[in-house]
Specification:
With about 325 residues, the protein is of the alpha/beta class. The chain has 2 domains: about 240 residues, Rossmann fold (3-Layer(aba) Sandwich), CATH 3.40.50.300; about 50 residues. Helix 6 packs across helix 7, helix 6 packs across helix 8 and helix 9 packs parallel to helix 12.
C-alpha cells in the first residue's frame, strides 16, 4: 500500500512520551488509529503495566499477546500488545538460547522476576526489544507485518534512559546474544525509522519538561519527533474582548448595559452579573496570554506541533476517533 504523505514519512516506530497527566496514552491510542486509517495495520504497545489501552478502548485487561482491538477509519486495523517483562524475558531466552522451557522453570522459582526487579534497566531492554522486533518483523512473503508501531512509552523524565539503555548494555556486553540483541534494538531506536513524540499541555511545567526532554533526546543522539499539545481550549470570546480584558480595559458597565438590552438581567442584578462575568473574562484573558507564551516557547523548539482539542465530555471511544481525525487533518499521520 502506498504511504500517505505525512510529516513522518518513513517513520515506522512512533514513541509517545509526556509528563504525567498530559494524556500521553490517549494521544498514543489516537495516533495509532490515525496511522491505521485507510487500510493499514498498526500495533499499539503498552509497557507500564497500567492497562491504559484497555481502559481507553473500553476492553477487558489485555493479555501478553498481540490482538486486534479496533478498526480505523477506512478499514485499517489497530492491534495492541501489553508487554509483560517476565514473558518478554522468556521470549528472549527462546530467541537467543532456545531455553523457553528452562525459562519457565526459572520463572516458577522466582528468578526471572528477581532479575527484572533488581535490574530495572534489564526490564527496559526486554520491553524495547519486544517493540523493535515488531517493527522489524516480516511475513513469510517478505512483507512487513505492521505498517507502523506506536509505543506508549514511560514519562518524559525517564524516556532517554528507557530508549538508551540498550546502548549501555551493548557497551557492557562486547559479544554474544546480548550484544547482538542490543545492537538490533539500537539499529531501530536510533534510526530515521523512529520518532519520539512529546505530549504536553499549554502549562508551564509540562512545556518546560517537554523542552528539557527534547534537549536530552538530541544530546543522546535519539530522533526527536513532533509535539502534541493536548486538551486545547477554544476561546468562546471575541479576540477584541480578550485583548481588552488582558490590558485592563474591559468595561463591566458596558457589559451590564448589554445584559439589560438582551433582557438577561435588570437593575442591580445586571451590575452584579456583569461584575462576576468580568472577573471570569479577565481570568480567561490571563490564561489565554499564558497559553500564547507557552505556544511561543514550543514553536521555538523547531519541532512540528499539533493541537488536539479538549473534549468536554471526556475521552470515550467516539472522542478517540475525533482526536485521530484531528491528527490526520494536521498531517501527523
Amino acid at each position: 500500500m502506498k504511504a500517505r504523505d505525512t510529516d513522518w514519512d518513513g517513520v515506522r516506530l512512533h514513541v509517545v512520551t509526556g509528563k504525567g497527566g498530559t494524556g500521553k496514552t490517549t494521544v498514543a491510542a489516537a495516533l495509532a488509529l490515525a496511522l491505521a486509517a485507510g487500510g493499514r495495520k498498526v500495533l499499539l504497545v503498552e509497557v507500564e503495566g497500567r492497562q491504559g489501552i484497555a481502559q481507553i478502548f473500553d476492553l477487558p485487561p489485555l493479555p501478553y499477546e498481540e490482538r486486534k482491538i479496533a478498526v480505523a477509519p477506512g478499514g485499517g486495523d489497530v492491534h495492541a500488545l501489553a508487554v509483560d517483562p517476565e514473558e518478554a524475558m522468556l521470549d528472549y531466552l527462546e530467541m537467543f538460547y532456545g531455553m523457553r522451557r528452562a525459562g519457565r522453570a526459572l520463572s516458577k522459582l522466582g528468578i526471572v522476576d528477581f532479575a527484572t526487579t533488581i535490574a530495572p534497566g534489564f526490564r527496559d531492554v526486554l520491553v524495547t526489544g519486544k517493540t523493535t522486533e515488531a517493527v522489524r518483523r516480516r511475513s513469510k512473503e517478505g512483507r512487513r507485518v505492521y505498517d507502523a508501531v506506536v509505543l506508549d512509552a514511560p514519562p518524559t523524565g525517564r524516556i532517554v534512559r528507557f530508549l538508551n539503555v540498550t546502548n549501555e548494555v551493548a557497551g557492557l556486553a562486547r559479544m554474544g546474544p546480548i550484544k547482538n540483541h542490543a545492537d538490533l534494538v539500537n539499529g531501530v531506536v536510533a534510526s530515521p525509522e523512529t520518532a519520539v513524540h512529546f505530549v504536553t499541555l499549554l502549562e508551564e511545567m509540562p512545556v518546560q519538561e517537554t523542552l528539557d526532554g527534547l534537549a536530552e533526546l538530541r544530546a543522546a543522539g535519539l530522533p526527536p519527533g513532533g509535539v502534541f499539545t493536548n486538551m486545547v481550549r477554544t476561546s468562546l470570546l471575541p479576540a477584541e474582548a480578550v485583548e481588552a480584558a488582558a490590558a485592563g480595559r474591559f468595561d463591566p458597565d458596558e457589559l451590564a448595559l448589554g445584559l439589560k438590552a438582551a433582557g438577561l438581567a435588570d437593575g442591580a442584578d445586571a451590575a452584579a452579573v456583569a461584575s462576576a462575568l468580568t472577573e471570569e473574562i479577565v481570568e480567561h484573558a490571563r490564561r489565554t496570554e499564558l497559553e500564547r507564551q507557552e505556544r511561543a516557547s514550543l514553536d521555538a523548539a523547531g519541532r512540528p506541533r499539533y493541537e488536539l482539542p479538549l473534549l468536554p465530555d471526556g475521552v470515550d471511544l467516539a472522542g478517540l476517533y475525533e482526536l485521530a481525525e484531528s491528527i490526520r487533518t494536521q498531517g501527523a499521520a
